[in-house]
Amino acid sequence: MKKTKHITRARSKKNGIIFYSNLSSFVASETFRDDSGTIHSRVVLVPLHGLNDYLETSNHINKFNWKVIAFDIILVNVCLLSRNLDFVLASIYFSIFVSFELFMFIELVYQMKSKKGKERSTAKFHAAEHMVINAYQRLQRIPTFKEVKNFSRFSKKCGSRRILYKISTHSLISLAIAFLPECNYLFLYLFIHIFMIIANYKGWLEFLQVFITTPPSDSEIELAIEGIKNFEKMEEKLLFPPFF
């Protein structure tokens, strides 16, 4: 039986894309463009990237943590002034389950979409990553440049789906607590969760990826195709290692 071609996990950066191996959890193929515009590819160790990601994320979180806390305090106090118990409960629920992820997502969108953002190139590589993976998995081969351009920049397997799912689900629950006081909260909680699980599975939330992707130029698409080629080379070497 012929093995299906697929990409389990990938990640975009400011200057390229990393495609993680399906055969080993320790290696990945990184394709990037240097300052001169030349495309390079190399096999990298995943733990090193994982550590760097953790350190970068930790430093980034600490910078805007106080903003989230300040927002939550203001929100709850405004609701307390309204003397509406449902609003107060909704604001507390929102502060616990939504506000931190929402601020993270807003910050991410700002960095990717704003003219002053530091991740504008990442948004283009992110879109090219989705397009080339969609083409690769549909065609079951390395796609041509023309073929990639016909595929969507949105993906059902995008890593952002977790944070988008959490923000959407708990925001709906917060609104229900605030404006549907007569409802059975347990039933409503279960109904919203089941609905959002179905929506996530069906890809109904994909349109929200418009905030974290930007239509790529030919340059990003060319790099993404080269990345897929080198991903396949890496997988072949792992599957059939040379004996010497």
Describe the overall structure.
Helix 4 crosses helix 8. The protein has helices at residues 46-82, 85-97, 99-113, 120-139, 145-149, 161-179, 185-202, 218-239, and strands at 9-12, 16-20, 27-33, 39-45. Mean pLDDT is 89; it is low at 54-59. The chain contains eight helices and four strands; from the N terminus they run ββββαααααααα. The chain has a four-stranded antiparallel sheet. It is of the alpha+beta class and 244 residues long.
Percent range of helical residues: 55-70%
Give the oligomeric state of the chains in this entry, treating copies of one chain as homo and distinct chains as hetero. Answer: single chain
The end-to-end span amounts to 30 Å
Strand arrangement across the biggest beta sheet: 1-2-3-4
Helix count, per DSSP? 8
Overall average residue pLDDT: 89
Shape: elongated
What summary fits the major beta sheet? Answer: 4 strands, antiparallel
**Runs with pLDDT <50, length 5+?**
54-59
Task: Tell me the total number of β-strands.
Answer: 4
What Rg is obtained from the alpha carbons, in whole angstroms?
21 Å
Strand proportion: 5-15%
Q: What is the helix/strand order?
A: EEEEHHHHHHHH
Broad structural category: alpha+beta
Which features does this protein show?
four-stranded antiparallel beta sheet, elongated, 244 residues, alpha+beta, 8 helices, 9% strand
In short:
It contains eight helices and four strands, in the order ββββαααααααα. It has 244 residues and is of the alpha+beta class.
Q: Would you spell out the secondary-structure blueprint of this structure?
A:
Blueprint: E1 9-12, E2 16-20, E3 27-33, E4 39-45, H1 46-82, H2 85-97, H3 99-113, H4 120-139, H5 145-149, H6 161-179, H7 185-202, H8 218-239
Antiparallel strand pairs: 1-2, 2-3, 3-4
Helix pairs in contact: 1-2, 1-3, 2-6, 3-6, 4-8, 6-7
